[in-house]
């Protein structure tokens, strides 16, 4: 039999547990309420790459209602209240100088086909208005971001063509340098800098992205590129899936001084959930992801924060954020930490919508500006897989003329020269 003190002690523990449970339920209820009022927009999801690797983009072999080998499927999307998603059209760096453009077009195609196959779940979107329209229809707005400048094959024409196909952001680099920009591995010492940030063509590209209304994504670039673009761009920038360097000093994350410049630029940093970028280790939990939200808010304000889960692009995700169904738990955690309704709504989607609208405004203001058609210098992209059609041919001397001939033509030329010399 319990003593009087033991009974009261047990009742006190039960009372505290009940109070905690009710408080947690209150935070979750508030999270779901806010997510019903403001669209949750995530900056980066690699489901299209999983479709490539698991099914070679054969959507007829996939059922996104029952697919369980990925972080993302339609039931998980609905449970997570995921209102808008930038799907990554990603191809690896080893496609650079080979078939990167073709493979990227195929990833753009599979995103379009995904929306066509599941129109009740997805609405293809290319504008800030489209996101809100999809939200009002209870469908997930599906946007495209090309992850890695190598996908362009150093062509402004490719950039414009991808925009016409619905691409709305370009990550300037992935984990390799392009012929015009340095990637984050330069800062880690794993790769040498080739351009000290951006080349002249890289700067051209920034202005052309402003002109056409393509969001500039600085995830994966070197710190020098971050700073250069923040100085050059006429429009706000995004980090589609990066976290805070001060919390986890990984070179894929954003340093505090850059966070403050993003604040000045009125851009956005969309927090990545990958364990390696959350804790700089193999393990992480939901609370540690929230630490990044808190830090960015403390350094540069709540107006630059968003969600950039990187689901299906990483092998390790935090406990409590195992898949896309878990977003409400993170929102509830922010509320538990004292975030106001307005601050949470800003992070959910209001910040990204503001950035997107300003990028569209800058595009419209540059409507009378002609497209940039100055190509990258051929010597900066010359390789065995690239032809030089359209580039001017230098005036060769006579020796150069002979050396440029085919072997048969060379033999005939030398023979004819000998005959003419003999006859003279």
TrEMBL record:
SUPFAM superfamilies: Metallo-dependent hydrolases (SSF51556). The keyword 4Fe-4S does not apply. Its EC number is 3.4.13.19. It is a lipid-anchor; GPI-anchor. Pfam families: Peptidase_M19. GO terms for biological process: lipid metabolic process; proteolysis. Independently of its dipeptidase activity, acts as an adhesion receptor for neutrophil recruitment from bloodstream into inflamed lungs and liver. It is an enzyme of class 3 (hydrolase). It catalyses: leukotriene D4 + H2O = leukotriene E4 + glycine; glycyldehydrophenylalanine + H2O = 2,3-didehydrophenylalanine + glycine; a beta-lactam + H2O = a substituted beta-amino acid; L-cystine-bis-glycine + 2 H2O = L-cystine + 2 glycine. Residues 1-23 form the signal peptide. GO terms for cellular component: apical plasma membrane; side of membrane. This is Dipeptidase. Belongs to the metallo-dependent hydrolases superfamily. Peptidase M19 family. It comes from Salmo trutta. Homodimer; disulfide-linked. Keywords: Cell membrane, Dipeptidase, Disulfide bond, Glycoprotein, GPI-anchor, Hydrolase, Lipid metabolism, Lipoprotein, Membrane, Metal-binding, Metalloprotease, Protease, Signal, Zinc. PROSITE patterns: RENAL_DIPEPTIDASE_1, RENAL_DIPEPTIDASE_2. GO terms for molecular function: beta-lactamase activity; metal ion binding; metallodipeptidase activity. It is found in: Apical cell membrane; Membrane.
């Amino acid at each position: 039999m319990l003593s009087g003190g033991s009974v009261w002690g047990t009742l006190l523990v039960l009372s505290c547990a009940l109070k905690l449970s009710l408080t947690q339920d209150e935070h979750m209820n508030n999270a779901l309420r806010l997510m019903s009022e403001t669209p949750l927009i995530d900056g980066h999801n690699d489901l299209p790459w999983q479709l490539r690797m698991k099914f070679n983009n054969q959507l007829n072999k996939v059922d996104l209602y029952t697919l369980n080998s990925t972080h993302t499927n339609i039931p998980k999307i609905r449970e997570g209240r995921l209102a808008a998603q930038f799907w990554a059209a990603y191809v690896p760096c080893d496609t650079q100088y080979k078939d990167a453009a073709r493979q990227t077009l195929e990833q753009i195609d599979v995103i379009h086909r995904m929306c066509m196959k599941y129109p009740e779940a997805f609405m293809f979107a290319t504008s800030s208005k489209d996101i809100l329209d999809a939200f009002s229809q209870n469908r997930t707005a599906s946007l495209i971001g090309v992850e890695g400048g190598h996908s362009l094959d150093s062509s402004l024409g490719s950039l414009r063509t991808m925009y016409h196909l619905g691409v709305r952001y370009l990550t300037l680099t992935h984990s390799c340098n392009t012929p015009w920009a340095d990637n984050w591995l330069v800062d880690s010492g794993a790769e040498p800098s080739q351009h000290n940030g951006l080349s002249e063509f890289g700067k051209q590209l920034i202005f052309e992205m402003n002109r056409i209304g393509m969001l500039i994504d600085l995830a994966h670039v070197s710190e020098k590129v971050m700073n250069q673009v923040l100085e050059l761009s006429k429009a706000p920038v995004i980090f589609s899936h990066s976290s805070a360097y001060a919390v986890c000093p990984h070179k894929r994350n954003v340093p505090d001084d850059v966070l403050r410049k993003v604040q000045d630029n009125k851009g956005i940093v969309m927090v990545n959930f990958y364990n390696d970028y959350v804790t700089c280790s193999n393990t992480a939990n939901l609370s540690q992801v929230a630490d990044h939200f808190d830090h960015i808010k403390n350094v540069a304000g709540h107006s630059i924060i968003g969600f950039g889960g990187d689901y299906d692009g990483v092998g390790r995700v935090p406990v409590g954020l195992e898949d896309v169904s878990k977003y409400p738990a993170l929102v509830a955690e922010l509320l538990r930490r004292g975030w106001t309704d307005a601050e949470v709504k800003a992070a959910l989607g209001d910040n990204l919508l503001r950035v997107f609208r300003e990028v569209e405004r800058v595009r419209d203001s540059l409507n009378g500006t002609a497209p940039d058609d100055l190509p990258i210098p051929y010597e900066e992209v010359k390789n065995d897989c690239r032809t030089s059609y359209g580039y001017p041919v230098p005036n060769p001397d006579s020796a150069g003329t002979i050396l440029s001939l085919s072997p048969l033509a060379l033999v005939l030329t030398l023979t004819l020269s000998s005959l003419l010399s003999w006859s003279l």
